[in-house]
Specification:
This protein has 94 residues and is mainly alpha-helical. 81% of the residues lie in helices and 0% in strands.
Amino acid sequence: MWDTITQLATERLWIYTALAGSIFGALFIYWIRDTYIAFWAINKWEATLDFLVNRWGWSWFKHNPDAWKAANPKLTKKIEELEARIKKLEKKKK
């Protein structure tokens, strides 16, 4: 056990490979993010999570679609004002 710890402390190649791998991974994700393959992979991942939620009731994967309203109260208020204004204008038009 002690030999493994001293070997990890003296041989630092694992640190450099981990850093290089994470940098290349981040660059790859940045490069592929707007491609059709990325959209396909994200849709498959969402379908898998939806399956798990429905199959085993994993409720922590469920998200509240109105959660952004609590995080952005000023934006929520402005959107609600604009929606009310649009409805009012549509009623006048008819």
